[in-house]
Design a protein that fits this description.
The structure is a single chain. The protein is an alpha/beta fold. The protein has two helices and eight strands. The protein has one domain: D-tyrosyl-tRNA(Tyr) deacylase (D-tyrosyl-trna(Tyr) Deacylase, Chain: A). Helices cover 20% and strands 38% of the residues. It is globular.
């Protein structure tokens, strides 16, 4: 599982002209699910998102999590995180999980974050979305569950 996590002062997702998810401050998470991802991958990503210390404390050091600052999370499904462009010019998405299965995993990540008391907004799975954000910092972190499992 891969997640691109950005610290944002605001973010929103628009589908067919309507805002479907928006946060004022917290984390914008683009989430990709790979073939073979299972519960340990989901648990790893959820723990990292909830506890990643990328918000500044009183001393200006990145030492607080999204929970510590009462921030929110906007999770956007992003199968293109598994795009492989090493050969040719058009990416291959062979490593991405099938959409029906990936949607269940995506929804379980959202629910697990909510179960930790975090306010979570989402995009619409498999929809064409416009994502607008103000990246704060900028702070952008790549999480990948397979590297440490």
């Amino acid at each position: 599982m891969r997640a691109v996590v950005q610290r944002v002062s605001r973010a929103r997702v628009i589908v067919e002209g309507a805002v479907v998810g928006a946060i004022d401050g917290g984390l914008l998470v683009y989430l990709g699910v790979a073939k073979g991802d299972a519960e340990p991958d989901r648990a790893y990503i959820v723990d990292k998102i909830a506890n990643l210390r990328v918000f500044e404390d009183e001393g200006g050091k990145m030492n607080r999590s999204v929970r510590d600052v009462s921030g929110a999370v906007l999770v956007v499904s992003q199968f293109t995180l598994y795009g492989d462009a090493r050969r040719g010019r058009r990416p291959s998405f062979d490593e991405a999980m099938a959409p029906e299965d990936a949607q269940r995993v995506y929804e379980s990540v959202v629910e697990a974050l909510r179960a930790q008391g975090i306010v979570v907004e989402t995009g619409v799975f498999r929809a064409t979305m416009s994502v607008e954000c103000a990246v704060d910092g900028p702070v952008t972190i790549l999480l990948e569950s397979k590297k440490l499992l």
